[in-house]
Amino acid sequence: MNLQKRILPIVTFALLLFTATNFATAQAAEAKPAEATYEAVLHVLIAGGQAGESVPSSLSAVSRSIRSEFDTSNLRLINTYFGRLSNTGSIEYKGVSNAYAAESMPGAPSFLDWRLVGIRSIQNALGQPAYHLQSFRFGARVPVRVVNFPDEKTPAPVNYESIGLTVERVNVRDNAPTLIGTLTQPRTDGTLFLVLTIRNADK
């Protein structure tokens, strides 16, 4: 009987401790903030007399830098791509677009592939909010006309050429449009400028 009286308080205390621990753990899990959500916007600009839309005002600073460094006055926007992701997340986009061909060719579209892998929120050397990207890839397979037949009813043969840019381990500042790289279109004098902007969507 005495043994039972001594064991009962111990068991009761253990149960209370177990309940309190589980309650505290549950509260901590509920209080843990959700991961931030980021928006990635890729603007593709072109120079060299190609058609396109006016450059958005949000890109005014980087477009001035491009015009100065690359000695071009004719800079236009030809495509904008958007994606949302969280910390360590990735974006992969595959699609069809005629914006990267040397000329319009019915039945021979361009095939686009771009991806952003392994985003991480960091601070740069100046202590500013920034993002580290494990890798960035932009590529397209574009049609190139091989022969022009005098007979318009005869379809001209088309070959596909690949263009692309891959960047490993790069940092970009928060909400600061950044020129990631350039590409030259096959058989044209047009140059593509890839401008990436990443911002915290929760701010």
Summarize the model shown.
The chain is of the alpha+beta class and 203 residues long. It has helices spanning 2-31, 60-70; strands at residues 37-47, 75-86, 91-97, 110-123, 129-145, 158-173, 178-184, 191-200.
Task: Output the keywords.
alpha+beta; 4-stranded antiparallel beta sheet; 2 helices; 8 strands; globular; 203 residues
Could you explain how this protein is built, in words?
The protein has 203 residues and is an alpha+beta fold. The protein contains two helices and eight strands. The chain folds into two domains: 1-32; 37-200, no CATH class. Helices cover 20% and strands 46% of the residues. The chain has a four-stranded antiparallel β-sheet. It has a four-stranded antiparallel β-sheet with strand order 3-4-5-6, with no helix packed on it. A hairpin with a 5-residue loop joins strand 4 (110-123) and strand 5. It is globular, with a radius of gyration of 27 Å.
Approximately how much beta-strand content do the residues carry? over 45%
Helix content: 10-25%
Mean pLDDT: 80
Radius of gyration: 27 Å
Alpha-beta classification: alpha+beta
Report how far apart the termini are. Answer: 64 Å
| Strand order within the widest beta sheet | 2-1-8-7
Number of strands: 8
General form: globular
String of helices and strands: HEHEEEEEEE
**Structurally, how many domains make up the residues?**
2
List the uncertain runs: none
Number of helices: 2
Largest beta-sheet characterization: 4 strands, antiparallel
